[in-house]
Design goal:
It is a single chain. The relative contact order is 0.12. Strands 1-3-2 form a three-stranded antiparallel β-sheet, covered by helices on one side. It has a three-stranded antiparallel β-sheet with strand order 4-6-5. With 230 residues, the chain is α+β, with helices and mostly antiparallel strands. Helices cover 36% and strands 18% of the residues. The protein folds into two domains: 93 residues, K Homology domain, type 1 (Ribosomal Protein S8, Chain: A, domain 1, 2-Layer Sandwich), CATH 3.30.1370; 89 residues, Ribosomal Protein S8, Chain: A, domain 1, CATH 3.30.1370. It is elongated and about 65 Å long. Keywords: RNA-binding. It comes from Heterosigma akashiwo (Chromophytic alga). InterPro entries: KH_dom_type_1_sf.
């Protein structure tokens, strides 16, 4: 619906931050995302695909930019140098399975061309990683007792590496991040991938953790009952 306020402009579907009260400050809320800057385009890409899109030393991104604008010259109405900015990896905090790529600079036509090339690159990644057509990417966040989670780093992290070598899944163990609870020792673990792959990974993870040494389970139980943190 249109705003009844004079001079109001449409927001393009983005959530608007609430207006600040007199003498106070606006609180945009946890789900608020600022709109794209003027003269830019945004596209959502799978979080697991960002390494593939960037390449070593961002080489793949540079090739896409070169393909979209092979002869960069100044043009009236241009927006400066063409570039792509990838959103920081926030899946362990927000649960997002996708990341935002912002295309800035040059002209609208060239930005649209680069957006198309990015989407084509994502499709190639989906084919190469055997993604199931039509199945969305999800992010599953778990909070694991610290002592049991240390079992994942055994044998130089062989278990985590074996999971990440499986198709359709990426798992990140974050034992060095602060506990998610002030009273209990709970460390974050994140799985990102297609639904079937995430569910398989969850079952495999639980089976692996059941095989942890008994003293780790006992220490975990102590921590969950409010025992001392290390």
């Amino acid at each position: 619906s249109r705003s009844s306020m004079p001079g109001a402009r449409p927001t393009g579907g983005a959530r608007r931050a609430p207006a600040a009260a007199a003498g106070g400050s606006a609180d945009p809320g946890a789900g608020y995302k600022p709109p794209a800057p003027a003269g830019s385009l945004e596209v959502e890409v799978p979080g697991r695909a960002t390494g593939y899109l960037m390449g070593k030393g961002a080489e793949n991104l540079r090739k896409l930019i070169q393909a979209a604008n092979p002869s960069p010259t100044w043009k009236p109405g241009g927006g400066g140098k063409l570039m792509v900015r990838l959103e920081l990896d926030q899946d362990s905090k927000t649960g997002d399975a996708t990341r935002k790529a912002t295309i800035q600079g040059s002209t609208e036509e060239i930005r649209e061309k680069l957006k198309t090339l990015l989407c084509e690159k994502v499709k190639t990644w989906q084919e190469e990683c055997q993604a199931v057509a039509g199945q969305e990417e999800i992010c599953l966040r778990l909070a694991m007792p610290g002592p049991v989670m240390s079992h994942l780093s055994q044998d130089r992290g062989h278990f985590v590496k074996s999971i990440n070598n499986s198709p359709g899944i990426m798992m990140k163990s974050l034992p060095l991040e602060p506990s998610r609870s002030a009273a209990w020792d709970l460390r974050p673990l994140v799985m990102v991938g297609q639904v079937d792959a995430v569910l398989r990974c969850q079952r495999t993870l639980l089976e692996h953790l059941r095989g942890a040494p008994q003293h780790l389970h006992e220490r975990s139980a102590e921590r969950l009952l409010g025992g001392p943190l290390p």
